[in-house]
Amino acid sequence: MPEEPQSSQDVNSLAGKILRVTPDGQVPPDNPFANNPVYITGIRNTQGFDWLDKSTLWVTDHGPSGDLGRRGHDELSLAKAGDNMGWPTIYRCESKKGMVTPSIVWREALPPGGAAIYTGNSIPEWKGSLIIATLRSQHLQRVVFNPQSPQQVERHEVYLQGQYGRLREAIMGTDGELYVTTSNCDGRGNCPPQRDKILRITR
Predict the structure, then answer these.
(1) Using CA atoms, how far apart are residues 184 and 161, in angstroms rounded to an integer?
(2) CA distance 189 to 169
(3) What's the maximum distance between 2 C-alpha atoms anywhere in the chain?
(4) In this predicted structure, what is the pLDDT of residue 20?
(5) How far is it, in rounded angstroms, from Cα 178 to Cα 80?
(6) What is the mean pLDDT of the chain?
(7) What angle do CA 47, 52, 58 make, to 5 degrees?
(8) Is 183:192 a contact under the CB 8 Å cutoff?
(9) How many Å is the Cα radius of gyration of the chain?
C-alpha cells in the first residue's frame, strides 16, 4: 500500500503497481511502458491475482481502511497490460474514462488474500472460477464469470465460513489441487494451539 496514495498513478513510481519482469529481473520488451517494470497502475493493496490469459489478469485489491476518509469496498477487476485500476481517483463502483471499473465490490471489508483460477479436477464445477481467500470475513469465495464477457460476474458463493479462521493464500498446486493457507497467528487472528495450517480443498 503506497504511503502517498497518488503515487499509485505515477508510472515512474513502483508504489501501487503490479510489476512484470523476466526471471532474471529485466524489463520485458513488450511491457506497456517502455523500459519500465510497471504492468498495471492504480493499485492500493493487492494480495491476489491470477492470469486469465497471457495478457489478462483477475486482480483483487483491498479497499481503503480510513485513508482519505474512506473505508471498505474491496474490489475484483479484470485488467490488461497498461490498465489503470483507479486508486485513489476512483473506488467503489465508480467509473472514470481511462480507469477500470471493478467487476464486483464488497461494501464491507473482506479483505481478500490470495486468489487463483481453479483448474483442477477434484471439483469439476469450479473449473474456470476465481477462488479468493479472505481474511477478516474468514471464508473462501468462489466467483463465477460469464464465459462470453469475462468482466461480468454471474454469481459468487461462500465456502468454509468461519471454519478455519482467517484465510491468507489460495493457490493451485502442481498436483492440480487447490491449497489454502490460514493466517490466524499473525497478530490479527486467534492463534490455535496447532498454529496455522495448509488446507487441501477437495469435495
Answers:
(1) 14
(2) 15
(3) 51
(4) 97
(5) 25
(6) 95
(7) 30
(8) no
(9) 17
What is the C-alpha separation between 70 and 64, in angstroms, rounded?
6
Identify whether the C-beta of residue 188 lies closer than 8 Å to the C-beta of residue 167.
no
Classify residue 44 as exposed, middle or buried by CB count within 10 Å of its CB (0-12, 13-18, 19+): buried
Residue 182 corresponds to which cell in the numbers above?
Answer: 490460514
Q: Exposed/middle/buried for 194, CB within 10 Å: 0-12, 13-18, 19+?
A: exposed
**Claim: this prediction has a pTM higher than 0.70:** yes
Q: Is the model's pLDDT at 48 over the cut of 80?
A: yes
Asked if 155 and 144 touch (Cβ cutoff 8 Å), the reply is yes
Least confident interval from 17-21, 59-63, 91-95, 156-160: 91-95
Q: State how far the Cα of 93 lies from the Cα of 107, in Å rounded to an integer.
A: 10
- Quick one: pLDDT at residue 1? 66
- Classified as helix, coil or strand, 113 is strand
Give the H or E element holding residue 19.
Answer: strand 18-19
Separation of alpha carbons 28 and 112, rounded Å: 29
Residue located via cell numbers 464445477: 125
User: Cell numbers at residue 172, please?
Assistant: 493451485
